């Protein structure tokens, strides 16, 4: 194996990536500590008592919205540091602190509302099916996920950015022609003002059913050549053709099932030992709103442990396949390579992260892998 001499850009990218990875670990540690503290100090039980005085019927929703809002507030300094200060330091941010804070506030309110609705619904299912709630709830979450993926592009994403049909008609005609060759009707192509927040570039496929669309960042339209945009569009078209969002929803189902199953089987023995000290009601057990931090801890542990598996599946079965699709459709490996290099430079992407970091943080093949694959790709 040859050892490439790193360029200045690469060193900068590695520093940027490591900084964010350490901050993600710090955020995880903070979340875990806060949940343990909420349980052990009895604050969780006190918050549940307060929530019940507000509304007996919706005590879970009241508990969860206040709990999530408090957690967001305590994490605010760390999130500001990673989301704004670091982005400024690496000259990637296009935002004022006020504009960053406005987005953060919207996200926090949305998180509290969605979290409260979900927790209230989950407790209703847990009371109705005390032994099999984990299976019932996982099954119910499938249509809920489909609805969320359907609504996100029209209700949630526009809260943060403006989305418009792509103005570049030449580009749209090009991709539609390419797609028509394959007998595919391309869904709507839209552009998003990502430059409001950042100098980074991105493109993604989102939505299901009547809301599916390919989205290109304005930053990408500005910096990429038509050929480079074409390979990116073709990659996203690959996601549409492969029905990847449906696949991801289906992949999520066994994970949700496993996570809820773990909650139902790990939490009760712990409550048996510590529940009294934490003032969790023995007769309610895992259904006591005050036990929600414990369930969240089990869920967090489960998602951290399953992340390498999920990432590996997405890297191979979703993202690499979309790259292959793009290369076949456009037959332009050199544009693919320059597009990847540009993306790497603009986003300060670590081209070749250590394996452990790849397992836990990367759901795309690394830049080095994507470029090497395109270079090996036989343009026939
Ligand atoms: Zn992709």
Description:
The chain has 380 residues and is mostly helical. It is built from 13 helices and four strands. It has one domain (8-162, 242-376). 71% of the residues lie in helices and 4% in strands. It has a four-stranded mixed beta sheet with strand order 1-2-4-3. The model is unreliable at 1-5 (pLDDT under 50). It binds zinc ion. Residues 235, 239, 319, 322 line the site of zinc ion.
Q: Total number of β-strand segments?
A: 4
Radius of gyration: 23 Å
Small molecules in complex: zinc ion
Low-pLDDT segments, ≥5 res: 1-5
The helix/strand series, from N terminus to C terminus, equals HHHHHEHEEEHHHHHHH
Structural class assignment? mainly alpha
Identify the strand order in the major beta sheet. 1-2-4-3
| Tertiary shape | globular
Work out the helix count: 13
Kindly report the average pLDDT value.
Answer: 93
Helix fraction, binned, reads over 70%
The amount of beta strand, in percent, is: under 5%
Distance between the termini: 29 Å
Please outline the major beta sheet.
4 strands, mixed
Whole-number count of domains: 1
């Amino acid at each position: 194996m040859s050892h490439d001499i790193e360029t200045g850009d690469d060193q900068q990218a590695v520093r940027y990536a490591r900084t964010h990875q350490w901050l993600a670990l710090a955020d995880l540690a903070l979340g875990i500590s806060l949940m343990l503290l909420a349980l052990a100090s009895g604050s969780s039980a006190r918050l549940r008592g307060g929530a019940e005085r507000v509304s007996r019927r919706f005590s879970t929703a009241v508990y969860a919205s206040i709990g999530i809002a408090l957690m967001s507030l305590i994490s605010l300094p760390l999130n500001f540091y990673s989301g704004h200060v670091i982005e400024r330091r690496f000259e990637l941010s296009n935002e004022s602190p006020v504009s960053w804070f406005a987005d953060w506030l919207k996200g926090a309110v949305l998180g509290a509302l969605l979290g409260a609705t979900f927790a209230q619904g989950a407790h209703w299912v847990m009371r109705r099916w005390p032994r099999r709630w984990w299976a019932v709830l996982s099954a119910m979450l499938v249509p809920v996920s489909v609805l969320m993926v359907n609504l996100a592009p029209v209700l949630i994403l526009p809260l943060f950015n403006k989305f418009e049909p792509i103005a570049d008609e030449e580009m749209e005609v090009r991709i539609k022609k390419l797609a028509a060759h394959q007998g595919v009707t391309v869904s709507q192509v839209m552009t998003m003002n990502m430059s409001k927040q950042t100098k980074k570039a991105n493109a993604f496929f989102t939505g299901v059913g009547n809301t599916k669309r390919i989205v290109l960042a304005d930053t990408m339209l500005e910096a990429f050549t038509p050929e480079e945009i074409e390979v990116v569009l073709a990659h996203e078209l690959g996601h549409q053709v492969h029905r990847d969002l449906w696949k991801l929803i289906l992949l999520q189902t066994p994970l949700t099932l496993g996570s809820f199953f773990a909650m139902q089987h790990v939490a009760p023995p712990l409550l048996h030992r510590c529940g009294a000290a934490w003032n969790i009601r023995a007769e309610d057990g895992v259904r006591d709103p005050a036990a929600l931090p414990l369930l969240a801890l089990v869920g967090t542990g489960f998602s951290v442990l399953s992340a390498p598996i999920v990432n590996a599946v997405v890297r191979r079965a979703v993202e690499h396949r979309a790259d292959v699709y793009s290369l076949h459709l456009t037959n332009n490996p050199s544009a693919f390579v320059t597009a990847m290099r540009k993306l790497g430079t603009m986003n300060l992407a670590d081209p070749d992260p250590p394996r452990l970091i790849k397992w836990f943080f990367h759901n795309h093949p690394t830049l080095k892998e994507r470029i090497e694959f395109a270079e090996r790709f036989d343009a026939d």
